[in-house]
Amino acid sequence: MSRHLKQSSRRRFLVGATGVMGAAGVVGVATPFVCSLAPNEKAKQVRAPIKVDVSKIEVGAMVTVAWNGLPIWILKRDKQSLLSLKKHEALLADPDSIDSIQPKNTKNTFRSVRSDIAVYIGLCTHLGCTPKYRPELSPIDLGENWHGGFFCPCHGSKFDLAGRVYKNVPAPTNLEIPPYRFIDNDLLEIGYREESEGV
Amino acid sequence: MFNALMNWFDQRLPILSFLRKHLSCYFVPKNLNFLYVFGIFALVMCFSQLITGIWLAMSYTPTTSEAFESIQYIMRDVNFGWLIRHMHTTGASFLFAILYVHIFKAMLYGSYQKPRELVWLFGWLLFALFSAEAFTGYLLPWGQMSYWGAQVITSLFEVIPFVGDSIAQWVRGDYTVSEITLKRFFALHVIGFPVLIGLLLFLHISSLHHVGSNNPKGVDIALKLDGKGKPLDAIPFHPYYTVKDLFYVLLMLGLFAAVVLYVPDFWGYFIESDNALPANILSTPDHIAPLWYFAPFYSILRAVTYPLFGIEARFWGAMLMYLSIFLLALLPWLDRSPVKSLRYKGKVSKFMFGLFVISFVSLGVCGVMAMNATALFIAQVSSLIYFSYFLLMPWFTKFEQCQNVPDRV
């Protein structure tokens, strides 16, 4: 084979060119197959925002609604728990939400637009399980240092009532907050996006 | 008449010569023990999975609204659907149990060593493919465990810095596990992976037949030949091993039938009870655990709880899990012992292999248990032993004192 190829540089060039064109062809044909697996336009379309009336949520209670295939938690916190949020900041991994994902106007201690109403995407930032809502203080299974919050049963991650992650647990960041706004005093719109403002 | 017909065929397609080469004239060491039937067991279970799988696909619907319903339909309305489905679910667990013994045998007798490195590598790829096949199949019933198991495992890709989210979305075809994911897992489970498994099985067995079987003593039988060039310590595969294998296959199938008919869920280990609930995207089951055959690797994933070099803990957990599987592929090059079988290796090798088996089993036990401090500690120690076994192997196999391997089996 190589003996024949040495005979002419023209043949060598043709073999090389065919190889390069062949490789380009393989990449070209592979492209639609690889891209076909990525989320398509229909899946990417942000589904219509949903509206939730928060006036009916009791203080201390949490409701779960589905938006965009994600569980969304809406939690009404009492004054007591809001005041205690500052106290255990030393136990938290990201108390100022610097590495976490949230809309700009919720990057505060309460991690919310209105201090009593908290809205989170109810998926653990570790591997996407839904953590359990555990508002009680210092229960037996969670220990002395539990100030109320969310506990992930899958791998033991802990979050406080502001969705802030504790240190030394598998989850790296605070619970994600979806884009939302209050369109009325007690009417919450989840999935509202900046671009649609003013329309 | 018959002979003439067979000859006519053989001149056009050498079937007879092929069978002679691979059965009656394929020479196998005469000292193969019980552990050597597990390769045949695996082939039998593959065939069973293929047949039951085709029948299940006839009645299954891969949509989020109907997947769970169609499983109920198979269980209640399809004639013998309950039996075919339980054969498929039990078959998956049996196949993995068989594969683990098969791998154990290869490690025990050094069957991965020269000249069988390719046999081992093809086998390793097969194990990876079977894992992918089992994982995609587990999503199909669209139960709570199906959904959340897939959610957790596809999230593993998110831990890769910078591009992780895109990769996870590419794998799912959506931002969370959805109908798009279900449909592609179905396609891969019934067509994609089975075709690859078939190809790899062909390569695994072809490469084995080219170099011949190892044996419990690790003696190279090709070194002692009789006048006709046949190994002195070998017997033809057919009829000696076909009969032996057939006997054990019947025993295994008896055990298989007993499990299928009496305890198809195997007390929650073959079919998890949470999977009897349809998938609910708003709530994770309290105790989420993989099926038993993935538990050892899941344990390694969970064992890493602290960040390192500024990268989060879950990244290292996932990396260690992948590494734990990858290290197995390197075994032929990590083992530098002059002898194959553990019988003639030194004390350190025996001790380390014992520790390795114990660590693997305890990782499995921790993996199916709920997360607590004790389980975490045991999983961490076991992971350490698991990795030390592979990483220290080049040294302890090189410097230890081995026994002399006999000339003949």
TrEMBL record, chain A:
PROSITE patterns referenced in this protein's UniProt entry, alphabetically? RIESKE (PS51296), TAT (PS51318)
Query: Where found?
Result: Cell membrane
Q: Name one GO cellular component term.
A: plasma membrane
- Which cofactors does the annotated protein need, by name? [2Fe-2S] cluster
Q: Which residues form the Rieske domain?
A: 87-189
Which InterPro entries does the entry mention?
Answer: Rieske_2Fe-2S, Rieske_2Fe-2S_sf, Rieske_Fe-S_prot, Rieske_Fe-S_prot_C, TAT_signal, TAT_signal_bac_arc, Ubiq_cytC_Rdtase_Fe-S_su_TAT, Ubiquinol_cyt_c_Rdtase_Fe-S-su
Known catalytic reactions: a quinol + 2 Fe(III)-[cytochrome c](out) = a quinone + 2 Fe(II)-[cytochrome c](out) + 2 H(+)(out)
Membrane association type: Single-pass membrane protein
Which Enzyme Commission numbers does its entry carry?
7.1.1.8
UniProtKB keywords: 2Fe-2S, Cell membrane, Disulfide bond, Electron transport, Iron, Iron-sulfur, Membrane, Metal-binding, Signal, Translocase, Transmembrane, Transmembrane helix, Transport
- Say which enzyme class the record assigns: translocase
Would I find Translocase among this entry's keywords? yes
Comment on bound cofactor? Binds 1 [2Fe-2S] cluster per subunit.
Q: Name one Pfam family in it.
A: UCR_Fe-S_N
Single annotated GO MF? quinol-cytochrome-c reductase activity
Q: Where are the transmembrane segments?
A: 12-34
Anything else the record notes?
Answer: The Rieske protein is a high potential 2Fe-2S protein.
Give the similarity note: Belongs to the Rieske iron-sulfur protein family.
Please explain the role this protein plays, according to its UniProt record: Component of the ubiquinol-cytochrome c reductase complex (complex III or cytochrome b-c1 complex), which is a respiratory chain that generates an electrochemical potential coupled to ATP synthesis.
- Assembly and oligomerization: The main subunits of complex b-c1 are: cytochrome b, cytochrome c1 and the Rieske protein.
The name this protein goes by in its record: Ubiquinol-cytochrome c reductase iron-sulfur subunit
Q: Which organism is it from?
A: Marinomonas balearica
From TrEMBL, chain B:
The record's Pfam families line, in alphabetical order, gives:
Cytochrom_B_C (PF00032), Cytochrome_B (PF00033)
Quaternary structure and partners: The main subunits of complex b-c1 are: cytochrome b, cytochrome c1 and the Rieske protein.
InterPro entries, per the entry: Cyt_b/b6_C, Cyt_b/b6_C_sf, Cyt_b/b6_N, Cytb/b6-like_sf, Cytochrome_b, Cytochrome_b_N_euk/bac, Di-haem_cyt_TM
**Ranges annotated as spanning the membrane:** 34-58, 92-112, 119-140, 185-205, 246-270, 291-309, 315-333, 353-371, 377-396
Tell me where in this chain the Cytochrome b/b6 N-terminal region profile domain is found: 5-217
Q: Kindly list the positions annotated as binding heme b b562.
A: 88, 189
Molecular-function GO terms, alphabetical: metal ion binding; oxidoreductase activity; quinol-cytochrome-c reductase activity
Instruction: Classify the main location.
Output: membrane
Q: Where does heme b b566 bind?
A: 102, 204
Q: Which GO terms describe its biological process?
A: respiratory electron transport chain
Q: What does this protein do?
A: Component of the ubiquinol-cytochrome c reductase complex (complex III or cytochrome b-c1 complex), which is a respiratory chain that generates an electrochemical potential coupled to ATP synthesis.
Q: What is this protein called?
A: Cytochrome b
Keyword set, alphabetical order: Electron transport, Heme, Iron, Membrane, Metal-binding, Respiratory chain, Transmembrane, Transmembrane helix, Transport
Q: Which GO terms describe its cellular component?
A: respiratory chain complex III
Compartments where located: Membrane
Q: Which domain of life is it from?
A: Bacteria
Regarding the membrane, this protein is recorded as:
Multi-pass membrane protein
Cofactor(s) for this UniProt protein: heme; heme b
